[in-house]
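So, is this right?
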Amino acid sequence: MSNKNSVWVCLEQTGGKVAGVSYEMLSGARKLANELSGEVCAVLAGHRVQAQAKEAFAYGADKVYVCDNENLEHYNTGAYCKVLEKLVKENEPEILLLAATTNGRDLAGRLASRLETGLAADCTALALEDGQLVATRPTYGGNIMAEVVFPEKRPAMCTIRGNAMSKDDPDASKTGEVITVAYDVDDAELRTKVKEIIAKASGEISLADAQIIVSGGRGLGDPSGFDLIRKAAATLGAAVGASRAAVDAGWIPYEHQVGQTGKTVSPKLYIA
């Protein structure tokens, strides 16, 4: 079944919780689908995720394809790719969006190869020109913003940075169709298996979710300057950010880097 005007979003979940970037992508997909006079379809793979599927309607999905199986509880490249590959080949969407997260990047590259289509990675904006998708992404260390077009192959695939798209307010009155997808991946096909997840408790607020960020760079003079940044952040209930120069100098780990080559953030207050 072909739907040339549909925009598809791969919802990312961990432990049954859907990532915020997934709802951002749904909001962006809704705008694109409205211009194309098409529909928004979401794909959710996991275990015991039926309730989460219904939340997608509030953010703009018309249909949600749910593949629920205990082998999908934790992300697995082979299993997730086979589920998505089958659905995309059967439905032929115009656009497919995935999150530019560790798992999303891993899945998108493999899936694009299987579908023999192009992939624009780490995109910060999407637009339509004459009905064709134009994706904007940073390149050359963020010094240039490149516009990527998809003249032939479909679906046009993109991974989207968190906080790059605005998330619409959810509308609980919206409903849609939940479509159950059979899981037909043989255990013998799975090259890896997750035995245990060990969460790292950092005690720090995530940059992606932070409402306040206190950030430092070369102006701190040396690594000890971040002691003051951390004290200020703790007082304000803020996340700690850093410039690329500070990270490159080894003063602070990369996960604190803010900017084109780091985390895209959208706090209410940013102090640097």
Summary: The first helix runs from residue 20 to 36.
